[in-house]
Design a protein that fits this description.
Helix content: 25-40%
Radius of gyration: 14 Å
Number of helices: 4
Number of strands: 5
């Protein structure tokens, strides 16, 4: 049975390992432990999914709790995908946000079709500015 937690302190190594197992590692700085430490430290809300002692999913969020929550990362171990873990991570995230708080995200190419399937509305007006 998968357990969901908002109080787990995970290491950069645990997160990197999960991101590699989820394929999100292809789009994240998995070779930079310091960046991953900062990503975890500075997120407002992190929900984790556990199969026993094994980290199998994460929702990493930057939010003001009231109006908007940016779902920076949603990663589920490939061996656990299609079991509802990603959907439950989003539900767990929503349950910790204000009643009118919206979730926004940028979908990884491999996950682009997933979000519409679970109720997200596509918005073509996203912009990025890389340093």
């Amino acid at each position: 049975m998968i357990q969901y937690r908002d109080d787990a302190h995970i290491s950069a190594e645990q997160a990197i390992d999960l991101y590699i197992r989820s394929s999100l590692g292809e789009r994240r700085p998995i070779h930079n432990k310091e960046t991953f430490e900062a990503m975890l430290k500075n997120a407002n809300l992190i929900i984790t999914a556990w199969d026993g002692k094994k980290l199998v999913g994460i929702s990493r969020v930057l939010t003001d709790i009231a109006y908007v929550a940016y779902l920076a990362d949603l990663a589920v171990d490939q061996d656990y995908q299609r079991a509802g873990i990603g959907k439950q991570l989003i539900a767990e995230t929503q349950s910790r946000l204000g009643p009118d708080c919206m979730i926004v995200l940028l979908a990884a190419p491999k996950a682009n079709e997933y979000y519409g399937h679970i109720g997200f509305e596509h918005n073509p007006r996203a912009w990025t500015l890389k340093k």
